[in-house]
Amino acid sequence: MSIELILTHPGGAHKDDYLACSLLVAQHGAPIERREPEQDDLDDSSVLVVDVGGEHEPDRGNFDHHQFPRDHDPICALSLVLQDLGLYEDAKMFCDWLEPAEWFDTRGAGGTAKWLGVDRDIMSKLNSPMDVTLLRRFAQAGRLNPGDLLYEMMRWVGEDLLDYLRTLRERLTYIEEHAELWTLEANAEDSFKVLFMPRTSPLPDEPSMGLGRYLDSIGEAEDVAGLVYPDRRGSGYGLSRHNDHPRMEFTRIGAEDDVHFAHARGFVAKTSATEKERLKELLRAAWV
Q1: Could you read off the pLDDT of 159-208 as tens digits, one per residue?
Q2: How far apart (Å, rounded) are the C-alpha atoms in residues 288 and 286?
Q3: Cα dihedral angle (224, 229, 233, 239), rounded to 10 degrees?
Q4: Cα 94 from Cα 43, distance rounded (Å)
């Protein structure tokens, strides 16, 4: 059955209903209405009812979480839509922002701040004009149709998130097949690890994409200090810190003839070098 309508609540909008609707727009291309659902809406599986209605019945297209017990694990409408798409577990693993979004929607700013171990006022400092404007404009819209500016922006958000989640597993497999984990001796008593991703054909749009997630998946995230990956703008390589490792300082190699860029803050550099041994020399020279 084709989806005819995406329905969510009127009034204030939040990230969970905005993102849930964005995913459904990307998936189905149906218009959005912001109003209270009627029983006919809840009974009609061609109408997707999101973050309102008091039901979680995915087979009927209903994705509300407000009826769950107060002590239920934090979960929001976005979570329920991701579950229905079969993407929730990957989203929990690969989208660091998802769990805080679940907490914020179900426990509020105070509960989320306590869970994160930060002061409550930190939460408001993380907002940006993009958050405020998009959510305010979404809240003001009674109906959004394909072709409307905000609708198409939501489609982009949904498409990008779906593409990220659906292709990341493939990317991790690709990295596993091609990447090399180097252990470099800095001196007789000191060594460090670097993940090297060789140039492949075709070259991905973002050659460094997924490298950090790959290290997470193999349990090396805490031990790897640097990343080496193809430079999309040239034939050489990019060198960067992993997790902002304090001992990788690329300003130390800025004067090398084959290094054409080293950021003043030392966290990234670009080189025309392509030979592995030369790349290793540069990495050793950058090690503090």
Answers
A1: 999 999 998 888 899 999 999 999 999 887 899 999 999 998 888 878 89
A2: 6
A3: 30
A4: 34
Q: How far is CA 181 from CA 165, 169, 224, in A?
A: 25, 19, 9
Put simply, whether the predicted model's pTM sits higher than 0.70 gets the answer: yes
Q: How far is CA 288 from the centre of its chain?
A: 31
* Helix H or strand E segment including 278: helix 276-286
Quote the Cα angle for 101-107-108, to 5°.
75
Looking at 141, 168, 195, the residue that finishes a domain is 168
8 A C-beta contact, residue 25 and residue 151: yes
Domain of 282, in residue numbers: 179-286
- State whether 154 and 71 are in the same domain: yes
In a domain, 173, yes or no: no
Let me know whether 35 and 150 are in one domain. Answer: yes
Residue 28 lies in a domain: yes
In degrees rounded to 5, what are phi and psi of residue 98?
-70, -50
Q: How many structural domains does the chain have?
A: 2
**What 3-state DSSP class applies to 259?**
strand
- Residue 90 resides in a domain: yes
Hey, what are 124's tokens? Answer: 């408001």
Last residue of a domain, one of 139, 168, 197: 168
Q: Cβ–Cβ contacts within 10 Å for residue 47, how many?
A: 21
